[in-house]
Amino acid sequence: MSDFNPLQEQESIVSVTDRVVPVAIGAAVTAVHFLGDKAAFVGAEEKVTLVDPAGAMSPVEVAFGGILCSTSDGKRIVMGCDDGKVVVLDREGAVSTFATDAKRRWIDSVALHPDGAVAWSAGKTAFVQAPKGEVKSFEVPSTVGGLAFAPKGLRLAIAHYNGVTLWFPNMAGNAEVLEWAGSHLGVTFSPDNKFLVTAMHEPALHGWRLVDGKHMRMTGYPARVRSISWSAGGKGLATSGADTVIVWPFASKDGPMGKEPAMLAPLKAKVTMVACHPKQDILAAGYSDGTILMVRMTDGAEILVRANKGQPVSALAWNAKGTLLAFADQDGDAGLLEL
């Protein structure tokens, strides 16, 4: 990992910091999603703050306690809370309770399917509800570490200790286990449905080629990988966890097997968040010192979005058109950049 710091040479890097609309959330932000062109900053407690492109803020009370996880499809945000509720916030700012755990357990993970199905987990149990269906559940051997729907068909990946269970909720008793020792937390399907990748409790990723279950080990990180993002078209998987953005190649049928990753945007700080542009080979990267860079994936060219301000970047997202970038750090110091 290189120690080169491009920000030591401010003249050598293009800056758009003067075009950022500052947003003061004033409390910890754990994620940001877009509902249309409104950025929705999800707080660690109780609130989501909706912000329009001009910076006008509308706080919305969504929970009575902690918000533990969130996901969005651009039309609504689904959140899991520490009071056992799955809560939905729609584009109009309306809040509704989608589900309540019978034992009021923490809702640790949530996932959304393109057809509107919602998945959530509490303890060892994963739940799925299709738009017009009943709630179905599946128990795995240990606490659920993460959930992800496959891009095609109703198939749910449930990450847990020692592997991932692939569950078809519409087929009774139909589940397949992909095994690998260790604790699997985040999980994601490649956009082409050919690969499944987990972020592990140790500083590594693990992957499987779904056609034959072949393993892919992606190691060498100094820290745990907490943020992953597929590039437009799914040819690369950008990850946090090092002092450069690590991008694993997934363009070939073997994925990253036997290949080295690209290492982009080195800094003397850890990458904490990554978000790939939805249409172009560009990514945004947030760092532990508060720096945010836009990076062209083809040649590594960088644009400074936010200079180092001290607090780690905790949230980063593009809108669906790729015209707006939203970010926030752990203190709730946030911003919007219109391209």
From TrEMBL:
Q: Pfam families from the xrefs?
A: ANAPC4_WD40 (PF12894), WD40 (PF00400)
Domain Anaphase-promoting complex subunit 4-like WD40, first and last residues per copy: 278-337
- Coiled-coil regions in this chain? none
Q: Which InterPro entries does this entry report, sorted A to Z?
A: Apc4-like_WD40_dom, WD40/YVTN_repeat-like_dom_sf, WD40_repeat_dom_sf, WD40_rpt
Which keywords annotate this record?
A: Repeat, WD repeat
Instruction: Please give the name of this protein.
Output: Anaphase-promoting complex subunit 4-like WD40 domain-containing protein
Organism (species): Tardiphaga robiniae
Q: What is the lineage of its organism?
A: Bacteria, Pseudomonadati, Pseudomonadota, Alphaproteobacteria, Hyphomicrobiales
